[in-house]
Amino acid sequence: MITGTSYFFDSNRDRMSRLTANADQLQQQIATGKKLLAPSQDAAGWQRLQTLVQAKADGNAYAANITLAQAVLSQTDSTLTSVQSQLQRASELAIKANTAVMSQSDRAAIAEELETIVADLQKLAEAKDPRGQSLFDPDAGPIPIGDGVSVHTNSDPDQVFGTIVASLTDYVAQLRTAPDSDIATNSAAAISAIGGAIETVATAQG
After folding, report:
1. Residues 72, 129: contact at Cβ < 8 Å?
2. Of the four, 18, 147, 153, 202, which is 20 to 30 A from 111 by CA?
3. Mean pLDDT across the stretch 33-53?
4. Per the confidence metrics, is the pTM higher than 0.85?
């Protein structure tokens, strides 16, 4: 989803470049007195110039929006990669905590690292895009990048993070307080939740 937009953006940028070149050419003709000095001389040509001038202005705005959209998508991709890394580490820790040779102090150390991962995930979920808007804001409007064409760049936090932060927070508490007899069940549930979150993030990255 994120990596398949390059051709789309490039096509729109090429089209706007051609419109800008046409408008510049006609404006140069006016500046040199060679053509279209007044609307009365060539009404159709003058109207065409005005259309191209507006298209050029729109094209400049669309070009800036394309750059913005690419920046947001790139930031989203790198943020999701960071989320994946945190989840992979959380999975490793949950598997390790489920080992029979682990002592309570060992599990407490794992709980501390998982707590740090939870904090990091919360920071990633609150990341801001170049506009200062939440990177994971489902209500963020689309970015117009051409006539009648726009692109949605912000992801839904529920689709990306789901309940994994809450699940990991619960697991941290369980590692610290639950009896040894519950560790296997609690760890299995945590590993399953983390695995589901990893798949969800992978889908969001496309």
Report:
1. yes
2. 202
3. 55
4. no
Res 72 pLDDT > 60: yes
Q: How far is CA 201 from CA 81, 92, 159, in A?
A: 8, 17, 8
Distance CA 56, CA 68 (A): 18
Contacts of 151 (CB under 8 A, 6+ apart): 5, 8, 69, 142, 143, 145
Distance between CA atoms of residues 59 and 66, nearest Å: 10
pLDDT (tens digit, 9 = 90+) per residue, 98-110? 987 888 899 999 9
Task: Please state which of the ranges 20-29, 139-148, 152-161 shows the lowest mean pLDDT.
Answer: 20-29
Q: Taking a C-beta distance cutoff of 8 angstroms, is the pair 87, 94 a contact?
A: no
Residue 127: CA count within 13 A, CB half-sphere: 24
Pairing of strands 149-151, 143-146: antiparallel
Q: Measured between alpha carbons, how far is 206 from 196 in angstroms, rounded to an integer?
A: 16
CA distance 108 to 171: 11
Measure the CA dihedral 150/151/157/160, to 10°: 150
Location of structure tokens 């790139």: 74
Distance CA 136, CA 160 (A): 8
